[in-house]
Design brief:
This is Alpha/beta fold hydrolase. InterPro entries: AB_hydrolase_1, AB_hydrolase_fold, AB_hydrolase_sf. GO terms for molecular function: hydrolase activity. The protein has helices at 2-35, 88-94, 121-135, 148-159, 186-197, 199-207, 210-218, 225-237, 240-246, 259-262, 280-289, 305-308, 310-325; strands at residues 49-53, 59-65, 73-77, 99-104, 141-146, 168-174, 266-272, 294-298. It has 2 domains: 1-35; 42-325, Alpha/Beta hydrolase fold, catalytic domain (Rossmann fold). It is an alpha/beta fold. It has 13 helices and 8 strands. The protein has an 8-stranded mixed sheet, with helices on both faces. α3 crosses α4 (148-159) and α7 packs across α8 (225-237). The longest helix is centred in the N-terminal third of the chain and has 34 residues, at 2-35.
């Protein structure tokens, strides 16, 4: 009886501590949100939504920003446990100037849920092809992908090489990799034990001081507080099952077969020297293996370059557009 009471007391203390921590974290998040000082609130930039059906029936959420004059269409693909708000700054900078398409990948953002068995890079590449066929049926295309979004572009180049250099005239790969990722990414190695522990542990752990975890693993040492906070807000929106379902894609990643064909499009590769998820050497490998690719190295920038170095990322997209249009 005494032991039962002690266990109950311990459990109660644990729950109480967790409740207090959650309240404190909530207050900290509210304070950081107030301090952001952004002219346009993060997550508020929207346009008329489209719902497309993927080949296996998953509903894909797509938003299109039309331009004031005809331009190549830029299609933006976010990464793992992200959503289309990743491109907050690029969307604002290019709004009205460039026709842009923002895709929430399957199981992410406002798109429908996919099963674990249908969460492969091949499925994502099929989704991308569906978006191109239905939303960009004609005219030149620039594909911009961050992390898993970049991998999706590389997978499309492997399976549909004829698109590159014809329909797809430009590519921007941001903080991504073509393979051998698990051997060099300390953040992914750190994540393995958590994934094996199961979803309940991850659900609790992700919300317990998530800001510090995101700052440590996803951004560079000089990242602004507002950018860390935006990334933290975005990643916490993704269900934990998305971590579990898409993780196998990175274990045996090898996308080298499509890099030669991808190089038929004007390609820029961007990587940060402080990226712990896709270390800078992966950007260098991509630039070496993609014919005539341009490499942009961002000093002290982590994995979330579209926030940390948003002006440079936007300028890289503009440069590709200028090359295509000239």
């Amino acid at each position: 009886m005494r032991r039962t009471a002690k266990l109950a007391t311990t459990a109660g203390a644990f729950v109480a501590a967790g409740t207090v921590a959650t309240l404190l974290n909530g207050r900290h998040r509210t304070g950081r949100r107030r301090r952001r000082g952004e002219d346009v609130e993060f997550g508020s930039v929207r346009s008329t939504p489209l719902s497309l059906l993927a080949p296996d029936g998953v509903a894909l959420h797509v938003e299109v920003e039309e331009a004031d004059h005809p331009t190549p269409t830029v299609v933006f693909l976010h990464g793992w446990v992200e959503d289309s708000d990743l491109w907050h700054y690029q969307r604002l900078a290019l709004r009205g100037r460039v026709r842009s398409v923002f895709v929430d990948m399957r199981s992410h953002g406002r798109s429908g849920r996919s099963s674990a068995g249908n969460s492969s890079l091949a499925d994502l590449a099929d989704d991308l092809e569906t978006v191109l066929e239905q939303v960009v049926p004609e005219g030149p295309i620039v594909l911009v992908g961050h992390s898993m979004g970049g991998m999706t572009i590389m997978e499309l180049a492997r399976t549909r090489p004829e698109l590159f250099g014809d329909r797809v005239e430009g590519v921007v790969l941001v903080s991504t990799s073509s393979g051998r990722l698990m051997r060099s990414s300390p953040a992914l190695r750190y994540l393995v034990p958590l994934l094996r522990a199961g979803t309940p542990v991850l659900d609790w752990g992700r919300r317990f001081n998530s800001y510090s975890v995101i700052r440590r693993w996803a951004l560079g040492p000089r990242a602004a507080e507002r950018h860390v906070d935006m990334v933290n807000e975005m990643i916490l929106r993704a269900p934990t099952r998305v971590l579990m379902d898409f993780y196998p894609n990175f274990v045996s990643l090898d996308l080298t077969a499509g890099l030669g064909d991808l190089g038929r499009a004007r390609t820029t590769v961007i990587g940060g020297t402080a990226d712990l998820l896709t270390p800078i050497k992966h950007a260098r490998v991509l630039a070496d293996r993609i014919p005539d690719a341009k490499l942009i190295v961002l000093e002290d920038v982590g994995h979330m370059a579209p926030f940390e170095a948003h002006e440079t990322v936007t300028r890289a997209i503009e440069d590709v557009l200028e090359d295509i249009e000239s």
